[in-house]
Design goal:
single chain; alpha/beta; TIM Barrel; 10-stranded mixed sheet; 7 helices
């Protein structure tokens, strides 16, 4: 099972999306999910509209490179119009080590036309993933519960897509019981299936 540490490896919410949280995840060989916006012409890490002093995206990319490109960088694009800046920031990172996701459909077209790696979204409220053919993977989300299933993951794998599964706690639901159900699924043996979670340490113990 491949982990995506949601906003890095952190113990307190104040540590999320910090350079130390990302580096701690990288040291364990995990990829990360991180939020990217623009501020005064530069890319920064911020879930909400950024303010002065926000962590530069370049600092995270440098740390990722220094740690040998562990896991994947799941770049959650929080603002449209950033495709060219993201491509420049990640020009030295192998294309198979990162992907962008969560853009609007018109903005996603820019990533597709530029040949940039991106994941399309599939969820209980997004039944038809946009630009599926061009996407290198699927961000498999579940807002109400009950949508994520092993056959659904397997279907995307059969279409030669990578799959990032969103863990229930990211939407405020308990993950323990669900993980006990999920752990029996054979799809976790695929390197193309990733679990995005706030609890990567626990995930490594459950999905063995």
């Amino acid at each position: 099972m491949v982990s995506l540490a949601h906003r890095g490896l952190w113990a307190s919410p104040t540590e999320r999306n910090s350079l130390s949280a990302f580096c701690d995840a990288f040291r364990r060989g995990w990829g990360v999910e991180l939020d990217v916006r623009d501020l005064d012409g530069s890319l920064v890490i911020s879930h909400d509209p950024p303010t002065s002093g926000a962590l530069p995206f370049a600092a995270v990319v440098d740390a990722y490179r220094a740690h040998g490109y562990p896991g994947s960088l799941a770049v959650n694009i929080k603002s449209d119009g950033l495709a060219a800046m993201v491509a420049t920031a990640l020009r030295d990172v192998p294309a198979e080590r990162w992907f962008a996701f969560d853009m609007s459909v018109p903005d996603t077209l820019l990533y597709a036309r530029a040949g940039l790696p991106f994941f399309t979204r599939h969820s209980d409220v997004e039944s038809a993933p946009a630009l599926y053919k061009q996407a290198c993977g699927v961000w498999l989300d579940d807002f109400a519960g009950g949508f994520i299933s092993e056959p659904r993951i397997a279907e995307h794998l059969a279409a030669a897509k990578r799959v990032a599964v969103v863990s229930p706690e990211l939407h405020g639901r308990d993950h323990d019981a669900m993980w006990q159900e999920w752990r029996a699924w054979s799809v976790w043996g695929s390197a193309d299936v990733l679990l995005c979670t706030d609890q990567p340490n626990q995930a490594q113990e459950v999905f063995v």
